[in-house]
Each structure stands twice: as C-alpha cells, then as structure tokens.
Design brief:
- Keywords: Aminotransferase, Pyridoxal phosphate, Transferase.
- Pfam families: Aminotran_3.
- Its cofactor is pyridoxal 5'-phosphate.
- The protein has 474 residues and is of the alpha/beta class.
- The protein has 2 domains: 179 residues, Aspartate Aminotransferase, domain 1 (Alpha-Beta Complex), CATH 3.90.1150; 276 residues, Type I PLP-dependent aspartate aminotransferase-like (Major domain) (Aspartate Aminotransferase, domain 2, 3-Layer(aba) Sandwich).
- The chain is 38% helix and 15% strand.
- The chain is built from 15 helices and 15 strands.
- It has a 7-stranded mixed beta sheet, with helices on both faces.
- A hairpin with a 4-residue loop joins strand 2 and strand 3.
- Helix 4 runs antiparallel to helix 12 and helix 13 runs parallel beside helix 15.
- It is globular.
- 46% of the residues are buried.
- The chain binds pyridoxal-5'-phosphate.
Length: 474
C-alpha cells in the first residue's frame, strides 16, 4: 500500500517541544477527559508529539505502533500530508463562514452529497456537528422535534442499552449505559430507558446464541408494552458496542430489533461513530454487515480520520420531509452549531474519504481483519485471557481470574493497565478499559504488522501473568 506521510525526522522547528516544560504545563492546566486523578497528580501525562503512518512517538523519542488509531479514529493512519494540505488550502482560501440562514460553503456541500452517496439508499440528508456526542445529542433533539411535528408529542423516551457509549454531552451521557461513566454525574433519566446489552460472552449460563437473541428481542417487546409505544421515540445502538467492551451481538440481533421498532413506530438510530468509515470493512456497517436500514446513522471519528473535529447525522428521506417543512410561518429549524459544516473539517473529511477509496482501505480491512482476529485468538492460551472477541479492526481481550467461572480479577489488580504497560514497554500502544484491553488500529495494518503486534501481545500477557502472580492476584 503506497502512502505519503510526514516523517518524524523532518519535523519543522516550530513543532519541536521542550518536553519538561510541556509536561508541567499540561499537569498544571489541562483537565483531561477520562483521567484517573489518583495517578495524574503524581505522574502527569505521557505526551505524544509525533506520528507517522502506523506509528506515534512520545516526547522522549520512543516510537510505538498505534494499536488504537488515536481513539478509534485515525483510520487512514497518521501524518497524511495530503489531508494537511487540503485543510491548509481551505483555511487560507476561506477558513470559516456561517452555514446558518441559507448560507453554505463548498466542502460542506460536497461532503453532504458524498455521504449521501456512501450511505444506505434512503439516507440522503446530512446534519453536521463537531463530534460523536454532539451528533447523538443533536439527533435526539431532531427526533423529538420530528414527532412533535407529526402531532405525536408524547413520543419522547429513547431506548438505549446498558454498557452503550454514546458520548458525554448531557444527553449523550444519559444515553450512555456504562455505569461508572456516570458515577456522581446527573443524567436525564426521564428521557432514557436502558435495555440489556447484547453480550455473547456473558450471556446467561447455558443459553444458546439463538435463544439469547430471542431473549433480548423479548425484553425490547416487553419494555415497549410497559412504557407504551406512544411514549417511545427511538432506539439507539452501536452495531458493535465499542467502549463498553467490544460486545458482540448474537446473529440477527440488530435486524430483529429493527423489525420490532418498525412495528411500533420507533425510529432505529445506528451510532456508527466507531464502526463507520471502514473499521468493519465497509463505509457503514449497518446494512452491509448487520442487514439493517436505520432511519438515522451517526458518524464522527473515522469520517475525518481525526484530522479535524467533525460529526454527521445521516437522515432518511422520510424524516427529512418533516424536518424540511417550516413548522409555522416565519419558523426555521432552530438547531445547529456555529461549526456545523465547518469548511476545514469538511475538506479534511473529503480528502480522507478519497484516500479510503483510492487505497481500497475497506478492502484491506476485509482482507487483513479476519487474519488479525484469528492471530489474536492464539492469545487465549494465556492464563488470564477469558475472551478474545470483535470483528475486523475492532477487537478486545477480556481478562479474567478464572476462565471457567469468568470471575474477574479485583479492580485494584489493574489488569488492563498492566497488560497495556507491558505492551507499551515493547513498542505497542493498546487501550486498557478496566479489565479489558482494546485494539482499534489504523486501517492500514498489513499481515506483517499483525504478526509483530501479536508477538508483542504474547510477551505482554506472559509478563502480566508473572506480575499478577508475584503480587498475589493469581
Ligand atoms: C459509539 C460512540 N458514540 C459516540 C461517541 C462520542 O464521540 P465524541 O467523543 O466525538 O463526542 C463515541 C466516542 O468514543 C463512541 O464510541
């Protein structure tokens, strides 16, 4: 695969850093998202300052294979000079102008049309935001507005799922079902009901995959009866739950959930913030992988490969008919952000999509993804590895104390952190999430990289077992 990257060696002097001062400034002033302050106050942060293709480099000059694509987002890999150029050209030509009140700009118009072309057939209308949380938040407002306009104002409740991750604006955090994410925060409970997550690994003991699917669909049906379809606006789901632990649904789950939603006039929203833009081998996974036709698909992250903040809500023709009609004389669709359709972000996304198409990156994921999954399964021999799961470039390893009972290690063993630290010592960054380790690489890994990564992980899990034993956890 040919790629053009800026390399760490030709970093301009304006981008060279004094790492000690920078570390101090960061520690003194930057409130980081999702940071464990029990460690931060003492250790501060590792600064990642350079990048190149599948690699990132820290402020000490250590180079790592990026196993998490930044944060599930740098799909085309790091240091793509042509994306930088497209952004610079747009920024110098016209960095920003309003998209409110019948104004638009060229990259936003081009990108909206391109997304309509790539999305499933009836999703032809795009509402732009600045990221995944904002996309989900804006979607719920639009969905409520849609039902109000249809004369169904009682349809307000959103069905989400436990362990779902939909972001951290107030509304997106309320949709999120990872309990610890909302410890001591408030949530909008009157708007959201959480169903069970679809988690094949931890399904009830002895239940077949097919029965498990029936069980989850029955729970949806019962919940609808309980709350009343007239009070429910939408069901929102990630095709594969990401931050909740790369939880795999049983075969046919999404299609069946959608059938029940359709029968009850409940909109089906696919949160493809992670699964979109190639991670599962297609621009969108909803139809191509899960055989669903969502009313709305949300995307962000891989949409611009993280080169610029951007989110998009792809809306069906049917919903647009309602949104696209003034609610009253002089009325406008009064929602949107200063940066909806930001020209520089849209220019980045257009170039990113051009690269994904030109380099056949979805095809690479379809070819290398199954190899990655198969090689990763070899780690299951390690004493603490309970489950290796996921699909294509979205994978997780669940660590346990006991494989038979699936009992977890105590939280204070920090098993995910231990594995991640051992991997990092050996030149690979993976993501620890509690007792899990997540892999969501740039989509340009080839088989040779997979072999190197799995060899590193093999050593990292062996070293973790030794350290857990030394500390009395095993
Ligand atoms: C499925 C999903 N939805 C929404 C979000 C929130 O996106 P953002 O962090 O860009 O607001 C994320 C972020 O990880 C995500 O994984």
């Amino acid at each position: 695969m040919t790629t053009t990257h800026r390399t760490a060696g030709n970093t301009p002097s304006s981008l060279r850093y004094d790492r000690r001062t920078l570390w101090q400034k960061d520690k003194d002033h930057f409130i980081h998202p999702f940071t464990d302050f029990s460690l931060f106050h003492e250790k501060g942060c590792d600064l990642i300052v350079d990048s190149d293709g599948i690699y990132v480099e820290d402020a000490h000059g250590n180079r790592f294979i990026d196993g998490i694509a930044g944060l599930w987002c740098v799909n085309v890999g790091h240091g793509r000079a042509e994306i930088g150029q497209a952004m610079a050209e747009q920024a110098t030509r016209m960095a920003y102008f309003s998209t409110f009140n019948n104004l638009s700009n060229a990259p936003a118009a081009e990108l909206a049309a391109k997304l309509a072309e790539l999305a499933p057939a009836n999703l032809n209308h795009v509402f732009f935001s600045c990221g995944g949380s904002a996309a989900n938040d804006a979607t719920i407002r639009l969905v409520h507005y849609y039902f109000n306009r249809l004369g169904k104002p009682s349809k307000k409740r959103i069905l989400s799922r436990r362990n779902a991750y939909h972001g951290t604006t107030y509304l997106a955090a309320s949709l999120t079902g990872i309990e610890s994410n909302n410890w001591d925060f408030d949530t909008l409970d009157h708007l959201v009901t959480h169903l069970s997550e679809a988690n094949l690994y931890r399904r009830p003991e002895g239940m077949s995959e097919a029965d498990y699917c029936d069980h989850l669909v029955a729970e949806l049906e019962e919940t609808i009866v309980e709350i009343g379809a007239e009070n429910i606006a939408a069901f929102i789901a990630e095709p594969i739950m990401g931050a909740g632990g790369v939880l795999m649904p049983p075969q046919g789950y999404h299609a069946r959930m959608q059938t029940v939603c359709r029968a009850n006039d409940i909109l089906f929203i696919a949160d493809e913030v992670v699964t979109g833009f190639g991670r599962l081998g297609h621009f969108f996974a909803s139809e191509a992988v899960f055989d669903t036709q969502p009313d709305i698909i949300n995307c962000a992250k891989g949409l611009s490969s993280g080169y610029a903040p951007l989110g998009a809500t792809l809306i069906s023709d049917e919903i647009y008919k309602v949104l696209g009609t003034p609610q009253r004389k002089g009325g406008v669709l009064s929602t949107g952000f200063t940066y909806s359709g930001h020209p520089v972000s849209c220019a980045a996304a257009l170039k990113n999509i051009e690269i994904i198409e030109r380099e056949a990156i979805c095809e690479n994921v379809r070819e290398v993804g199954p190899y990655l999954a198969q090689k990763l399964k070899t780690l299951a021999d390690h004493e603490t590895v309970g489950d290796v799961r996921g699909s294509h470039f979205m994978l997780a390893i669940e660590n346990v104390a006991d494989k038979a009972t699936k009992k977890l290690l105590p939280v204070e063993a920090r098993v995910g952190d231990r594995v991640a630290a051992e991997a990092q010592k050996r030149g690979l960054i993976i993501r620890p999430v509690g007792h899990l380790n997540i892999l969501s690489p740039p989509l340009i890994w080839d088989r040779e990289v997979v072999d190197r990564v799995v060899a590193i992980l093999d050593e990292a899990f062996a070293a973790t077992t030794v350290s857990l034993k030394a500390d009395g956890y095993l």
